[in-house]
Amino acid sequence: MTLHFIAMDPETNGDHCPTIWFDDDVQEFVIRGWKAGPDLKAKCLESGPIPDTEAVVRLPVRMAEVLSEMLDAAAGTAVR
User: Under a CB-based contact definition with an 8 Å cutoff, are residues 36 and 56 in contact?
Assistant: First the structure.
């Protein structure tokens, strides 16, 4: 596995931070975010079931630029 760090939420202190990586071996994004609470999870379930192998996570909107970096990484232009 070749996991490349893309970015961490810039407004956190380095602990318990939403973070994004890119695994170029399997061409997947790896995202660590805050767990969805029961109300959000229930709302997401309205669109269909969530298998045990998946999770709903939240990222702050201030990470929009980071999400753009994530897409650049997928295109092969910004892997660090």
Answer: yes
